Amino acid sequence: MNYEPVIGLEIHAELLTVSKNFCACSANFGQEPNTSVCPVCLGLPGVLPVLNKKAVEYSLRTAVSLDCRIPSRSIFARKNYFYPDMPKDYQISQYEQPLAVCGHLKIMVGGRERDIAIERVHLEEDTGKLFHEIPGSSDSASWIDFNRAGIPLLEIVTEPELRSGKEAKLFMAKLRQILTYIGVCDGNMEEGSLRCDANVSLRRVGEQTLGTKTEVKNVNSFRFLQRALEYEIDRQRKVLEEGGRVVQETRLWDAAAGVTQPMRSKEEAHDYRYFPEPDLVPLVVEESWAAGIKAALPELPDQKRERFVERYQLPDYDAGILTSTRELADYFESCLQFYPQAKTVSNWILGELLRELKGSAAGVGACPVPPQNLAGLLRLIANGVISGKIGKAVFQEMYERGLSAETIIQKRGLTQITDTADLTIIVDRVIADNPEPAAAYRAGSERTFGFLVGQVMKASRGRANPKLTNQILRERLKQK
Ligand code: ADP
Ligand code: ZN
Ligand code: MG
């Protein structure tokens, strides 16, 4: 029997606001535990929440980037449940009237474009964090840090339109790219500022109704998202093939074991008793506000990629990598201001720079080679001061020591030998030291010529100008 996987994602993104969603506490990551708290975010009696306008603005920025419809009015709701990391015993969220609905996000899957519908985007607040083990301590206590309680959290829910673990991963990667481009979330899945719950079910191919789903939690990387879903799809398929029924439940991904484990069943599921939050008025978003945010959006990844292909005549592959983060795209375009050969600059970024950055385009912001230095190096190569090969070694040193190409070349005496007299001395010595290959060349072996060029390069420590070397070597071999 052929089964088709059906996947819908619920994504949570912590917004990069300065303060929390309903109080003035700092939302900075990594502060001393329980230092960024106040009566509001600790849920003490008699306090009132005040909505953070910036959080709404970031939510709207996300909504317009995802092509959502933004109703003029949305409502905050209390989601009631008890868990020690949530001091109020309810989370302020949105339920029946969310901030945005009916969005879209395009992903490329194996060269084919897929348009994934987004059901809703709503604004809520994060919880505190529980620790059950303190590094270096043998205490068998649990600890709570409330610094994160009340940080604005955006929930993005897709329609069940993803069809494989790989599609889910590509969707998540694309969403992360957009969130970081528009500057609303740092996208750090390991630290939990971007999280994802994956809902998955199977149904027979051709069937329209949805099968019973499970919800997989605790996937904190793209790789794990794909693997957890693939595991879960496999597990459900086996259950169905053996004539069993999938149980509706929440399951936890166990990364170490590579399996999902049951966490709670439908019977144990919470009844959240949602009701409108009486302490907050409805959120009214005037059309002009949303329109202004849309007009001020930065260029999004797909647009930038297309522009790079058209304006700089780059292959789509290059443009895709260069626009993978906004920082890398900006780096590339800054280089072009100093050295306007797009393809050459692209080759160096894709090859040498990303190698040094270990493939992570995110690190380019703190890169020790500023754009003007890379451009300076490329100019020295183009002007024949050093060879391309030496250029690569120079680049590595520029990266390690934060120096300009000129400084390194001067210090190490790496300038190219372009003086005919100097080169002739080296060529003559190589011919004298290699009588047999020289004789073989004269007898017609072209292959030996390459060997002799190599010897000249070696003798000059790579500094001989290649074109001139070829020319002088042929002349001198003819003469003797
Ligand atoms: P719940 O009531 O369990 O929260 P929702 O209907 O709100 O479920 O949907 C939550 C997420 O699960 C959405 O992303 C949705 O697309 C997805 N989803 C819903 N039903 C299914 C299903 N049968 N199989 C796979 N995903 C589903
Ligand atoms: Zn507070
Ligand atoms: Mg739901």
Radius of gyration: 30 Å
Overall mean pLDDT? 94
Structural class, by secondary structure, is: alpha+beta
Biggest β-sheet: count, sense, barrel? Answer: 8 strands, mixed
From the N-terminal CA to the C-terminal CA, the straight-line distance is 80 Å
User: Could you name the ranges where pLDDT drops below 50 across 5 or more consecutive residues?
Assistant: none
The bound ligands are:
adenosine-5'-diphosphate, zinc ion, magnesium ion
**Structurally, how many domains make up the residues?**
3
C-alpha geometry: elongated
Q: What's the helix count?
A: 15
Approximate strand percentage: 15-25%
**Spatial strand order of the main sheet:** 5-6-9-1-10-11-12-13
Helix content: 25-40%
**Sequence of secondary-structure elements:** EHEEEEEEEEHEEHEEEEHHHHHHHHHHHH
Question: Got a strand count?
Answer: 15
List the helices and strands and how they pair.
Blueprint: E1 3-14, H1 53-65, E2 73-74, E3 76-80, E4 90-94, E5 100-109, E6 112-125, E7 129-131, E8 143-145, E9 152-158, H2 165-181, E10 194-204, E11 214-217, H3 222-241, E12 249-254, E13 259-265, E14 275-276, E15 283-284, H4 287-295, H5 301-312, H6 316-322, H7 326-338, H8 342-356, H9 371-382, H10 388-401, H11 405-412, H12 420-433, H13 435-442, H14 446-459, H15 466-479
Parallel strand pairs: 11-12
Antiparallel strand pairs: 1-9, 1-10, 2-15, 3-4, 3-14, 5-6, 6-9, 7-8, 10-11, 12-13
Helix pairs in contact: 2-3, 5-6, 7-9, 9-10, 12-14, 12-15, 13-14, 14-15
Bound molecules: adenosine-5'-diphosphate, zinc ion (ZN) and magnesium ion.
